[in-house]
Amino acid sequence: MGSTDPDFLRATRASYDALAADYADWIRDELAAKPLDRAMLDAFAELVRAGGAGPVADIGCGPGRITAYLHGLGLPAFGIDLSPEMIASARRAYPDLRFEVGSMPGLGLPDGGLGGIVAWYSIIHVPHERLAAVFSEFHRALAPGGHLLLAFQVGDEVAHWSRAAGHEISLDFHHRRPDQVAELLAGAGLDVRARLLREPDKDGDYPEPTRQAFLLATR
């Protein structure tokens, strides 16, 4: 990764490098407040274990909380993130787990080596025209019968953030329609097996003004 990276990768990396410490503190307990999110992760873990429990990549792992949750469910999970500062935060929080710097367009992983992939609110920063290539990369890295779990916000808009937690950033959040994502997954050879749509939730410490989608697919 370097100066030849697409603009969206450079902007996303720089933004999360700036936000890493504040984001890790803020998001640490979020999963405990989301029982439906945990249910999808639990189902994913059960399916991966039934298929032989190959390695599981948490792609866009941020500070590592989902990687750690999957590890707690008995999966050999490791994390990949674009931001070196996020990876440093994850390694500090979970020193016994594996975390690596990497990007979705080129994972640098062997063909067919993964039993599962989780992309938990990480495809939200990928422009629409690049999403099919990302899903093809997921397909390449998954073993036959491997599982993919996606989480993203539902909608058609692209929200741009230029400031957060006192930091100057440049982040685009691509909201997506589940049917459109499912069509792209199918085009990459990934069959959607389950969907969950969660309604907006304006209560608690982690409010969400939009619907949230969770798609579970299989190679």
Q: What is the topological layout?
A:
Layout: H1 7-27, H2 35-50, E1 56-59, H3 65-72, E2 77-81, H4 84-93, E3 98-101, E4 114-120, H5 128-141, E5 142-153, E6 158-164, E7 167-174, H6 178-187, E8 191-198, E9 212-218
Parallel strand pairs: 1-2, 1-4, 2-3, 4-5
Antiparallel strand pairs: 5-9, 6-7, 8-9
Helix pairs in contact: 1-4
Short description:
This protein is α/β, with parallel strands linked by helices. The protein has helices at residues 7-27, 35-50, 65-72, 84-93, 128-141, 178-187, and strands at 56-59, 77-81, 98-101, 114-120, 142-153, 158-164, 167-174, 191-198, 212-218.
3D architecture notes:
With 219 residues, the protein is an alpha/beta fold. Helices cover 36% and strands 28% of the residues. It is built from 6 helices and 9 strands. The protein has helices at 7-27, 35-50, 65-72, 84-93, 128-141, 178-187, and strands at 56-59, 77-81, 98-101, 114-120, 142-153, 158-164, 167-174, 191-198, 212-218. The strands form 2 sheets. A 7-stranded mixed beta sheet has the order 3-2-1-4-5-9-8, with helices on both faces. The chain has a two-stranded antiparallel sheet with strand order 6-7. Helix 1 runs parallel beside helix 4 (84-93). The longest helix is centred in the first third of the chain and has 21 residues, at 7-27. It is globular, with a radius of gyration of 16 Å.
